[in-house]
Write a structure and sequence with these properties.
six-stranded mixed sheet, seven-stranded mixed sheet, alpha+beta, Purple Acid Phosphatase, chain A, domain 2
C-alpha cells in the first residue's frame, strides 16, 4: 500500500506531495521532538501527521513542514485548505468532519484551555475526540504566557490533536508573548492572516467570525463591517475572548467588558445570532440581546472561578464547577446548543434559536 503525504506550507495552506511507501502497521518516518505520528484510522486508510517545524523523511529530499497537522489520504489530498474572502483578506476555510444530520454543521469548543499544572484540558480534549466538526477556541489557549514552549508542552498534547480542524481566537494570555507570536506560530494559517488575529469562514449556511478582542483596531472594525456587508447571511456567529456581558466572578476580576462594544455593535447591526466568549472562567448563557444569544464558555481546562453574589440581568444558565465544551449544531434556519461536561460532572445546558 502506498500513500502520498501532503505537506503544509505557508502562508496559505497548500499541498506539496511527497511520496512515502507504507504497509499496514508501518509508522511514518518522522523526526519530531514532540507529538509523534498519530494513526487516526485503524484500517490505515487515513494518517494524521503531526510535526512542527521538523522534517518529513522520505523520497525525494526531506521537506520542511509548517506548524500544523496534515490529514493524509491515499489520494494525497491534504486538508484544510484556504480561501480568500470577497474583501481580499485570506482566511482559512472550515473543514468540518461533522456527521450531523444532512444540512447541518457542528461547531464545538471553549476558551481558557491548556495549563500544564492542571488536567482539565486533557479531559475536555477527550470530549472533542468524540465530537466531529469544526473546533473553535475562545482565547487564552495556553497558560500562563502563550509561549511557543507552552503551546508545545501544554496545549499540543491535548487539544493539539484537533489542530487541523481548529479555528482559534487569541486571548490576553496569548499576548503575554509579544505579538502573540507563540499563538500565530503554533496555529499558522488556521489563525488567519499572520499577526492580525481576526478572520472569517463559511460553515454550511453560516458566516462565522473569529475576532481579536485583545487588540481591537480601527482596521479590524472596518474589515469586520465590510466583510459582513460583502457576505450577507441569514445566520451569523462570532467568537472572541472578552465577553461583552458576564456576571462578575467571585474574585471580582472578570465580568462584562465595555471595550468590546465595537465588535458587539458591528455583528449586532448585521443581525448576528450567536456570540461565544471565554475570559470569565465559567459557563454562562444569556437571553437574546439585540437578537444575539451570548454564551460565555471559559471552561476549556484551566481553573474555574465562582460567581459574585449578584447575577447579571439576562443570565439564563450558569455553572462554575464543571469543565466542558459547547457543542453547536448549525442549520440553515437556526441552531441548537449543548454544554457537554467532562466525565464525572453532571451540569449541562441545552438551548436553541432561529435565524
Amino acid at each position: 500500500m502506498a500513500f502520498v503525504l501532503g505537506t503544509l506550507v505557508g502562508p496559505v495552506l497548500s499541498a506539496q506531495l511527497l511520496p512515502v511507501a507504507l504497509a499496514p502497521g508501518d509508522s511514518l518516518p518522522l523526526t519530531c521532538p514532540t507529538r509523534m505520528t498519530r494513526v487516526t484510522d485503524p484500517a490505515h486508510t487515513v494518517w494524521t501527521v503531526r510535526c512542527k517545524g521538523q522534517k518529513v523523511i522520505g523520497s525525494p529530499t526531506p521537506t520542511p513542514v509548517a506548524t500544523g497537522t496534515a490529514t493524509v489520504s491515499p489520494t494525497g489530498t491534504a486538508s484544510p485548505t484556504a480561501t480568500a474572502t470577497p474583501s481580499g483578506t485570506t482566511s482559512p476555510s472550515a473543514s468540518p468532519t461533522s456527521t450531523a444530520a444532512p444540512g447541518s454543521s457542528v461547531l464545538v469548543g471553549a476558551g481558557d484551555i491548556a495549563n500544564c499544572s492542571l488536567t482539565g484540558d486533557e479531559e475536555t480534549a477527550k470530549l472533542l475526540d468524540g465530537i466531529p466538526g469544526t473546533v473553535f477556541t475562545a482565547g487564552d489557549n495556553v497558560y500562563a504566557d502563550g509561549t511557543s514552549a507552552q503551546f508545545a508542552s501544554c496545549y499540543d498534547p491535548s487539544w493539539g490533536r484537533h489542530s487541523a480542524r481548529t479555528r482559534p481566537a487569541p486571548g490576553n494570555h496569548d499576548y503575554h508573548t509579544p505579538g502573540a507570536s507563540g499563538y500565530f506560530g503554533y496555529f499558522g494559517p488556521n489563525a488567519g492572516p499572520a499577526g492580525l488575529g481576526y478572520y472569517a469562514f463559511d460553515l454550511g449556511a453560516w458566516r462565522v467570525y473569529s475576532l481579536n478582542s485583545e487588540v481591537i483596531s480601527d482596521a479590524e472594525i472596518t474589515w469586520l463591517r465590510a466583510d459582513l456587508a460583502a457576505n450577507p447571511r441569514s445566520c451569523i456567529a462570532a467568537y472572541w475572548h472578552h465577553p461583552r456581558y458576564a456576571t462578575l466572578d467571585a474574585n471580582g476580576s472578570h465580568g462584562s467588558n465595555a471595550q468590546v462594544e465595537p465588535l458587539w455593535d458591528a455583528v449586532a447591526d448585521a443581525g448576528a445570532d450567536l456570540v461565544l466568549n471565554g475570559h470569565s472562567h465559567h459557563y454562562e448563557r444569556f437571553a437574546p440581546n439585540r437578537g444575539i444569544t451570548e454564551v460565555v464558555v471559559g471552561t476549556g481546562g484551566t481553573g474555574l472561578n465562582g460567581f459574585a453574589s449578584t447575577i447579571l440581568a439576562g443570565s439564563q444558565a450558569r455553572n462554575a464547577t464543571a469543565h466542558g465544551v459547547l457543542k453547536l449544531t448549525l442549520t440553515a434556519s437556526g441552531f441548537t446548543g449543548e454544554f457537554v461536561p467532562v466525565a464525572g460532572q453532571s451540569f449541562t445546558d441545552t438551548f436553541s434559536g432561529s435565524c
